[in-house]
Amino acid sequence: MLGSISKGEVDIVIPTIRNLDFLEMWRPFFEAYHLIIMQDGDPSNVIKVPEGFDYDLYNRNDINRILGPKAHCISFKDGSCRCFGFLVSKKKYIFTIDDDCFVAKDPSGKEINALQKHIENLQTPSTPYFFNTLYDPYREGTDFVRGYPFSLREGVPTAVSHGLWLNVPDYDAPTQLVKPLERNTRYVDAVMTIPKGTLFPMCAMNLAFNRELIGPAMYFGLMGEGQPIGRYDDMWAGWCMKVVSDHLGFGVKTGLPYLWHNKASNPFVNLKKEYKGLFWQEELIPFFQSVSLPKDCTTAQKCYIELSKQVKARLGKIDEYFNKLADAMVTWIEAWEELNPSGA
Amino acid sequence: MLGSISKGEVDIVIPTIRNLDFLEMWRPFFEAYHLIIMQDGDPSNVIKVPEGFDYDLYNRNDINRILGPKAHCISFKDGSCRCFGFLVSKKKYIFTIDDDCFVAKDPSGKEINALQKHIENLQTPSTPYFFNTLYDPYREGTDFVRGYPFSLREGVPTAVSHGLWLNVPDYDAPTQLVKPLERNTRYVDAVMTIPKGTLFPMCAMNLAFNRELIGPAMYFGLMGEGQPIGRYDDMWAGWCMKVVSDHLGFGVKTGLPYLWHNKASNPFVNLKKEYKGLFWQEELIPFFQSVSLPKDCTTAQKCYIELSKQVKARLGKIDEYFNKLADAMVTWIEAWEELNPSGA
User: Fold this and answer.
1) Which EC class does it fall in (chains A, B) (predicted)?
2) What domains are there in chain A, each with its CATH number?
3) Chain B: residue nearest A182 by CA?
């Protein structure tokens, strides 16, 4: 069955600083799988995980022990530490979810199995080269419409499935401040491929990907303690990942599944984290829109190393931070290759 | 109110060969507006229009009379003759609809005012340069998500609103043959901008556009009697229009509104019309994906003339038909300028 998957094929990665009571609601959907819990902040804190879940928990001490001098590429006091979980996983698929996200219901009132829908998205092809007006052509009850080239109907492998959020939408701090009460109540019953050459804001609240295809490009950058910026970890990963996926011929989907995002984070705290990003972004987007990777970059690792060079060459002038980030990107790939030796 | 519009701002263009009984169902939505009825086929046939509608009807004799030697650019015995209606209209907006399309209902059971929704789509900006994961950011209850560059939030003028179909989907003949019973029952509650650089299959069953912005690029080509191909009129217009819109910085939306498409056309007849298109298309798409218009093409007319030259230069080798088509594209623009003198 499409979307069905064995325990050996997926890890659920959850970054957190608190007890994982939210897992109770996910029990019917997550209990059969393995969790990687990324404990952020003070490693001496004890995080309680409800009984019955199978998990590994990593804290800062584990990161330092496992990565040694390379540990600096993993952020501290920031949710972006989740990418360490991608590094130590050995599974084909990753589903990562925030601990303030709950099970949503579809319009019929049925609880949505977000994990299953993500896997279904990842197991079916993407169509990045031409837009299908009836959305996902591989879905039951629909197809490619008249005028869709037949040579493109096979599609390409799907690297990423980006899910959405009912209730509290993923807004930046200025929008949060301007629209504190806005809630997303619209269930849009669609999955679509984001076309080749088009960038989008990838949010990590509800995200799945094929680790074998794109894992090395899923680095969440340097955020949190000691860094000048926050809340751009998933954006950075999304831009890098999209450029690499476009180059390698992989697809990126967005849309279903929804989950229920419970609590808006503090907009003033968010503004402090974001504000440099809000204007840096205006230079980053043209960079990612124009970046070009050479043909001999045939793996996500090679693409990512090349990207790090271009980041240093073209973004270093914005702020010294981008030189540090470019170095960390290289360290990340070194760590990836150490923990995931080629051919293994 | 968004989506509201005066009679002086819109024409509804309907190509037909039969009595327009289908208008009864549209009466509450269309009666206050002006219709342009394009009678296809034998001009001596009499087409009955229900009482109370304000319309002009044009048949082949009218086309010949008005366009004289340029009349050959308007197809005969093919719905693509509808573009003559775009030519003689003097309105800002065009809504064109097929005569086998009826009023659809939204999931709450409410009848959908397709015209109003199209106008709303055309009156609000598009966002072709970056994908917004919560779809149309200008819609009530939603916005741009975190990570969407602020410099792009103003959007660009919208040239085209492409609506969809419940019940009988717009499939090509092979898909019709393979899935004769497939019906579209999924109401996807979204409007989105098709990103810059991405082509899509534009269907004219349920289509609106800003005639002032993009009218000259809305030519439906040479189809029907005496031509080697049919059912690619709207596709051709859509590819040309998208390339021109991308160049001029206009947006193209797809999604809502739905209408109810009643009857699948005969797949065997369709196959006969389509079959050359099915393989020609494989060369047309790479052409349109790679076409580039020079900077001095600052109007839709200039873009279209330039496009006609490139069609002749690069597609003429596929079949002599494309040389004829390129010439007809020029004739179309001459006719457009004759009937719509600049500055008028």
Assistant:
1) isomerase
2) 7-339 (3.90.550)
3) B141
